[in-house]
Write a structure and sequence with these properties.
single chain, mainly alpha, Four Helix Bundle (Hemerythrin (Met), subunit A), 2 domains
Length: 127
């Protein structure tokens, strides 16, 4: 009984010390701060932007050749990547141009679709 009286307060003190140290050190780690997680999100947004540019260029090439089926597939894929590319004025303008390009491509207006797709590439390439 006498041993229990002295061990219990020490155990409580050690647990309290562990909790305090953990709560102090954990937020300093880059995983829990804005370091690691935000860096990965920015990298992902940049990758989506690059994929959108590549697919939009591919769509413009299809449109110039008059291949509207592959144009629509590439333009829609570019739009999906652009939507995941983060919030930016240039990205938003690129998204709007891609939507117009898809609309005109669906109507069979290859020349207008090409111009909108090229404008989308221009906007998405700007930072």
């Amino acid at each position: 009984m006498l041993m229990t009286r002295y061990i219990r307060p020490r155990a409580v003190a050690l647990v309290a010390l562990f909790v305090l140290v953990t709560c102090t050190v954990l937020p300093l780690q880059p995983v829990f701060a804005e370091g690691g997680a935000r860096r990965d999100a920015v990298r992902s947004e940049d990758q989506h932007r690059q994929d959108a540019i590549k697919l939009a260029k591919e769509a413009a090439d299809h449109s110039k050749q008059g291949h509207m089926g592959p144009f629509l597939a590439s333009a829609e894929a570019a739009l999906q990547h652009a939507l995941k590319a983060g919030k930016d004025a240039h990205v938003d303008a690129g998204i709007a141009e891609l939507k117009h390009a898809i609309e005109h491509g669906g109507a069979g207006h290859a020349d207008v679709a090409t111009k909108h797709t090229e404008q989308a590439v221009t906007h998405l390439s700007e930072k």
